[in-house]
Amino acid sequence: MRRLVSLSRSLMGKKIMMAVTGLILFLFVVGHLFGNLKVFEGADKFNAYAEGLRTVGAPFFGRGQLLWIVRIVLLLAVGVHAWAALVVTRASARARTVGYERLESQETTYAARTLRWGGVLLILYIVYHLLDLTFGRVNPGFVPGNVYHNLVVSFSAWPVATGYIVAMLVLGLHLYHGLWSAFQTLGLNRPPTYGWRRGLAGLVAVAITGGYITIPVAVLLGAVR
Q1: DSSP state of 217
Q2: Which ranges constitute the DSSP H helices of 147-220?
Q3: What is the pTM (predicted TM-score) of this model?
């Protein structure tokens, strides 16, 4: 136990915490995408999927209990991930005694330079997303239990759809840098597979981002209504 506490207080421990919570959030993003894509199967199947999330774990858990446990774990993961990232970033800044005159492309990327503000934007959007489609506080046409209807009403408003698309683009940058950093931490970013691994990180980020973006676009175009 003492070793775990000591590790958690170290910079390496913070990096491990950031990696573990990042993996948890990545798995959620992938699973959430597959679930959301069921919207293209129609209202009945999408609502059945949403209802299944509320009843999963029965009879050991009451309706929605396990879902709320998952939500709490995810929110804690977001908090720990953001806190660990902030601590690691500050430590890196303090360790850099001489500022860079210019940023080389091999030392940083656009995704890396925007990682901090991108993370803040994602947290803000998560709050709005919960108020919109979970609690219905900012969704004027919210109908409890009718998830398909709530989604269509929300994304039918172009400002909301645009905000979602922007948030998903930011998520894509975050995923790209996160995956690339994971490869680097594991010591895998070395020739001759350097470019291949960078391409893989980019491909995964683009696929996930594109999958999410298809939903508001389909609503705006009337393909989902």
Answers
A1: H
A2: 147-155, 158-185, 194-220
A3: 0.85
- Structure token digits, residue 59: 């009879």
91-to-11, 97, 133 alpha-carbon distances in Å: 8, 11, 38
Integer CA distances (angstroms), 79 to 22, 72, 83, 213, in order:
11, 11, 6, 25
pLDDT digits (tens, 9 = 90+) for 141-171: 999 999 999 999 999 999 999 999 999 999 9
Given a cut of 60, is residue 105 above it in pLDDT?
Answer: no
Q: Say how many C-beta atoms besides its own lie within 10 A of residue 212's C-beta.
A: 22
Q: pLDDT class for 129, splitting at 50, 70, 90?
A: very high
- What tokens appear for 58 in the block? 């029965």
- What are 147's two structure tokens? 């998830």
Return the H-helix or E-strand segment holding 51: helix 43-55
CA distance to 91, 94, 100, 112, 115, per residue, from 97 (Å) = 11, 7, 10, 20, 22
Looking at the chain, how many residues does it have?
225
